Model the fold of this input.
Amino acid sequence: MHTGRHGRAPLLVRGAVLDRKRIQSLERVGIYAVYVDDEIGAGIDVPHALSEQTRARASAALGTAIDRVRTEQSPSIPPRRSASSARSRS
Done:
């Protein structure tokens, strides 16, 4: 089972009823599909887009970035070059 965010409680637990209120709550956070582990779905292997290691590293990096923004210690991000300045260099 995967949670919505690394290290957090699951979005749904076994036996949860998908009523309209719960579906709307999931949609509000960008979740539009769920896998149901039941007799109909038995044997279906759900592919993972990321390895657990990559998922954990990405989650940790995102958490660090969010913490920096919250404390106004933004990471150093080089200024974006405008399209015109990029063209003039070529």
Remarks:
- The mean pLDDT is 75.
- Helices lie at 20-28, 52-70, 83-88.
- The first helix runs from residue 20 to 28.
- The radius of gyration is 20 Å.
